[in-house]
Write a structure and sequence with these properties.
- With about 70 residues, the chain is an all-beta fold.
- The protein has strands at about 1-5, 5-10, 15-20, 25-30, 35-40, 55-60, 65-74.
- It has one domain (about 1-74).
- Strands 1-2-3-4-5-6-7 form a seven-stranded antiparallel sheet, with no helix packed on it.
């Protein structure tokens, strides 16, 4: 993990994804997907984020409707 001026570049070796985050957390840029994703909070443990699997959301453009949330796990 490399860190510069409050930003962190992360690599997930299991999935091959590279992420960039910083002050925008839980908003994370996924270089592999080429988009911003949101790390979802764990509803069972306030103040914590999901683990095993980690759950994320990204906004997907849908013609006429605009953007809808798409939740996925890694």
């Amino acid at each position: 993990m490399a860190s510069t001026q409050g930003a962190a570049l992360l690599q997930d070796e299991a999935t091959g994804h590279y992420f960039l985050t910083g002050d925008s957390f839980p908003k994370i840029y996924d270089f592999t997907l080429g988009t911003w994703i949101y790390y979802l909070a764990d509803p069972q443990r306030p103040g914590h984020y999901t683990t095993n699997p980690r759950r994320f959301m990204k906004m997907v453009p849908i013609p006429i409707l605009g953007y809808i949330p798409f939740v996925f796990s890694m």
